[in-house]
Each structure stands twice: as structure tokens, then as C-alpha cells.
């Protein structure tokens, strides 16, 4: 597979390359090492981020008989820096409110600056720009997600996974330090910005995110991401997509096992129906979530949107009939794109989304197949606007021939009404 240049070798336990030992950090301040997979944690915790809690809270209460898994050693994951709380406080200007990049279920994310090659804070605008995620002090559950994040991202390296630079664990403080992703999340670009994300960027982002998932699924110890959604796809200055947030990630089935059984966690609107029903998790659950994100990219609609009329609130349910009918496909396209999208690209993306969203998990493609399907879509230049203009001029020429001095504007408005591309009012400007 193209660009499958991530690093899986580090997953093997005991591989500790260039860990930076930190001064004055005793063993109590190092990460509790667990297996790569945090099974006990993911089996028992529930997500208090309201939009991610998919199981009834009473089923998923943290219990005191489920203690924090013991540290297996006191080493840090390879290459991660260990920061003190004071260093990160200074790096973010005392966690200034105006440096907040966003807020998720587990706390705020701040912009900060650190010196190159070290943990020392730097002046704003100098050194390396970082994103510092500070977990709300909500006890065991937050800590477990924090550990899962450090455990996975500390060891998985790929151009389409966000880079975890380091962490801080001090008393009940849990922080994570990531590379700063200049353009923020895909969610921001699709749903919060006034300028629509161009079609070519949408394809590029879908492809990058697909490569990230394919890497996770394709390694010697497959990982199921479990929280694939637009807010977890971050973008660098060139719109390269990187997956963030591995707090819910889980090791895939081993050997001849077909699935892993877990409690149902994730985000409403993205989780695969069979996983929600049975708790059986496979990599095809991620493929379903990818299908939902692909639909969001295509339509500019959120996977769940309570502000829309009933019947349109659940994106997948609303879009299915359109996906299944070639003549209706273009009604799905984000109206803010107007006619600036590839005609063939829309067909292919719709087909791919339809396959990823298949109710039968076995019929869904693998992420490798998704990547292969998306690669050629980057080069398509058959923009709807070009087709529209050529239709327009053809019709105008024909009209001129037959009617002599017929006004051009009449031809234009008729062609808009007749065009199969223009089924949505917004695109008929
Ligand atoms: N490395 C980063 N660089 C730049 N911005 C970031 C970075 N990480 C997170 N953000 C911003 O902070 C926001 C919050 O991120 P966070 O992962 O905490 O929550 P979320 O993904 O929005 O929600 P949830 O808790 O449901 O996963 C993101 O949407 C993004 O805008
Ligand atoms: Mg997130």
C-alpha cells in the first residue's frame, strides 16, 4: 500500500530507543506501563463526554474492584518527553484562556511553545509550537484514557497519525503534548467555517485519514481506532490529515478470533450498528465510521444534527436512498461547493460511502481497499462547473441556430432547470 511507512516495530514490548530520561523525575512520576492494549480499562470505563456515552451509565460504572492496572515497569514509551506541570504551565502562558484551541470531553487543549530538543518552555512564537491537552481531573476514567493515548501514540508512528511529543503526570494532573496542527480539526473546516473546504482538499483529507486507519488495521498487531470522527482528524498547514485521540483504541482480534468483545463506547452517529447492538468489535466497525465521515465530507452535513427536520437528523438514514440511486447522487453534494466538484469523484465517493456503510460488516471494504479507491480521485478534473458551462454554450449555439436572436439568459435558466446536476436550489444560483 502506498505511503505505508509508519513504524510498527516499536509495538513490541521492551523496545525502548531514545527515551529521554528526565531530571528529578522519580518512578512515581512515570507512566504506569501496561500491555499495548488497555483491555481492563476499556472494558469497564464509560465515557462521561455526553456525546460519546453509548452504553447506559449504570452498566458501565467504574468499580472499586477494578483497580488501575499495575505498572509493569517504570520506563517511558520510546521517544516521549516527560514534562513537569510547571513547564507546561509556562509553555501555555499559565493555561491562558486565549490560548485555548478547543475543548473535548476530557478537557481543554491549549496552544504552547517549547524549546527545541527538550521540555523547557519557550517564548510564544519561538521554539516548537505544541498543543497541550489537559485532562479534567475526573479520576480513574480520565487517567485510563490518558494512559491508552500514551500507550498507543507513544509507539505508533505514521505520517497520518498525530505525533505525541510527550506527557506530564504529577499528582492528579494528566497532560499530553502533541505536535501543533495548524489548521485544527476537519470538523472546524466542514461545519464551522464560512469558506467551504474545496473538493480537492476533501479528497486529500479523506485519503490521508484512510491511510491512517489502514496503517492501524494492517500492522502485525492490528489496532481498532473506535473513535473515527471529524473532530479527531487534524490538519497540518498543507491539509495533510492526521488521526488524534487514541483513548478508545483497542487491539484487534488475534489469531483465529473474528472479533473482540467490549463495552460499547464511541460517538453517536459514527458507531457501526452491529457493534452498538452486540459489543462485537472488528476493524469493519472503523470502516463504517469512515463511511459516515465520507458522507459528512460529501454533504457538509453532520452525522447527527438535531437542528435539521426530523428525517434528516441522522445523516446515514437520510442519505441512504440517495446513495442507492445514481440519478439522485448529486443532491447529496454540499451545496456550498456550488458546482466546484468532480462529477466522477462524487459518483466514486458515494459508491465508496455506500459500501463502507453496508449493514453487513463483511461486505464493507478493508481500509486498504478504501485507500486504493481514493487515490485516483485526486487527479479528476471533470468539474461540474465545466460541464455546466459546456452545456450552456452548446445549448446557446443550438438555440442561436434555430431561433436566431433568442436571448442567452433564457437558455441559461432553462439549462439550469434541466440539468441533472442542479437538483438543489442552492446550487442553482
Ligand atoms: N494537536 C492539535 N493541534 C491543534 N489543535 C488541536 C490539537 N489537538 C486538538 N486540537 C483542537 O482541540 C479540539 C478538542 O480536541 P479534543 O480531542 O480534546 O476533543 P474532540 O475531539 O473535539 O472531542 P472528543 O472529546 O469527543 O474527542 C479539537 O477539535 C481541535 O480543534
Ligand atoms: Mg478529539
From TrEMBL:
This chain belongs to which protein, by name?
Answer: non-specific serine/threonine protein kinase
Which UniProt keyword terms apply here?
Answer: ATP-binding, Cell membrane, Kinase, Membrane, Nucleotide-binding, Plant defense, Serine/threonine-protein kinase, Transferase
Naming one, the record's GO cellular component terms include: plasma membrane
Instruction: Using the UniProt record, name the top-level EC class of this enzyme in a single word.
Output: transferase
Concerning Pfam families, the annotation shows:
PK_Tyr_Ser-Thr
Stated family? Belongs to the protein kinase superfamily.
Q: Report the EC code(s) recorded for this entry.
A: 2.7.11.1
Entry's transmembrane regions: none
Q: Which GO terms describe its biological process?
A: defense response
Q: Name one GO molecular function term.
A: ATP binding
Q: Which Gene3D superfamilies does the protein's record reference? A: Phosphorylase Kinase, domain 1, Transferase(Phosphotransferase) domain 1
User: Mind telling me which InterPro entries this protein's record contains?
Assistant: Kinase-like_dom_sf (IPR011009), Plant_Ser_Thr_Prot_Kinase (IPR050823), Prot_kinase_dom (IPR000719), Protein_kinase_ATP_BS (IPR017441), Ser-Thr/Tyr_kinase_cat_dom (IPR001245), Ser/Thr_kinase_AS (IPR008271)
Q: What stretch or stretches form a coiled coil here?
A: none
Subcellular location(s) of the protein:
Cell membrane
The species this protein belongs to is Hevea brasiliensis
Just give the chief location class.
membrane
